[in-house]
């Protein structure tokens, strides 16, 4: 008697009916000592006394047809995991299409700012082990882990547990189309909180979750494609509009400022008319590379249309935004652009308009119009300059007075 899943079985660990195969004895101190022996089937004993937890897995299987965003799916998995195994803190590491690397996508039990912490934002040793062994890991805290060639950086594990205040951890890999794309990591402040049976239940849970994650990852990739400008690789205007809505909500909730830069390449039409659209397209790509260089992960750089670009700078004052705008303007001014051949070098400039929430505008359309008005002023005053809307408003007020 048993509940079977359609998940993969690892040939080096189990045969097709879930019977463990003989493994070579791991070396002392090897992280392989913490790899749990799991099967795609649950024992009759587990089914009898943990039926409540098995119902959670059945509920998850019924959700696999529902359309959900990836972030919502990862949060759902975290919530449902808590119904099976208690934890004090949790981290969900998962592949980030934007950054093209594993990152902490969800945290529980940590401060709200934890995802911005260098210690948690990137992948950690438990995630590396989950990818390496493709099976759950039951990790104690106070254990000597001498260096071994099996997995590098294994001495980071005690530091991770200490930093989370945990005395043990349970990490389970998350699969997408048969490949480990992340891990679900649970931390407990009580020693020996997690059992082999817990690892077995969560293993079956994640195998069931694979169908859901596979579909949502495909959806996220499609969304990324839809929101990526084919020419420059920047975000599209549609993505910018969506992010600006989110930034307004975030700024209102946290009572923080943010800045919007609107940028235009000076005399771009003349370049196109002189050298052709193929050179103009190449210039757009090169300018885009300059704009994204050294930007923070939280900043949004998008192509607004034609030779216009927009940048959202969260938690940024007017002074800081002016500094960023001038840095970008000088970088473009100093750059060399090849107009079809190494001998035909062009020097270009940009004009920048800047507006800040909530000093210059309190609504989305007003903020866009304010930065656009500042950009128009920069172009009208001779180009290759940055103008803030507050400066423009002061001039208008002075003229009116």
Descriptive notes:
There is one protein chain. The protein has 401 residues and is of the alpha+beta class. It folds into two domains: 31-225, GAF domain (Beta-Lactamase, 2-Layer Sandwich), CATH 3.30.450.40; 237-400, Reverse transcriptase/Diguanylate cyclase domain (Alpha-Beta Plaits). 43% of the residues lie in helices and 19% in strands. It is built from 13 helices and twelve strands. It has a five-stranded antiparallel beta sheet with strand order 2-1-5-4-3, sandwiched between helices. Strands 7-8-6-11-12 form a five-stranded mixed beta sheet, sandwiched between helices. It is elongated, with a radius of gyration of 27 Å. Residues 1-28 and 143-154 have low confidence and may be disordered.
Provide the descriptors you would attach to this structure in a database record.
401 residues, alpha+beta, Beta-Lactamase, Alpha-Beta Plaits, 2 domains, five-stranded antiparallel β-sheet, five-stranded mixed β-sheet, 12 strands, 43% helix, disordered N terminus
Mean pLDDT: 82
CATH class of the largest domain: Alpha Beta
Q: Which percent range fits the helix content?
A: 40-55%
Secondary-structure-based class equals alpha+beta
Q: How many distinct domains?
A: 2
Q: Beta-strand percentage?
A: 15-25%
Short note summarizing the structure:
The protein is an alpha+beta fold.
What is the strand and helix layout of this fold?
Layout: H1 44-49, H2 51-62, H3 70-84, E1 89-96, E2 101-108, H4 118-121, H5 125-133, E3 137-140, H6 156-164, E4 168-176, E5 179-188, H7 196-226, H8 237-254, E6 258-265, H9 268-275, H10 277-292, E7 300-305, E8 308-314, H11 318-334, E9 337-338, E10 345-346, E11 350-357, H12 364-380, E12 386-388, H13 389-400
Parallel strand pairs: 11-12
Antiparallel strand pairs: 1-2, 1-5, 3-4, 4-5, 6-8, 6-11, 7-8, 9-10
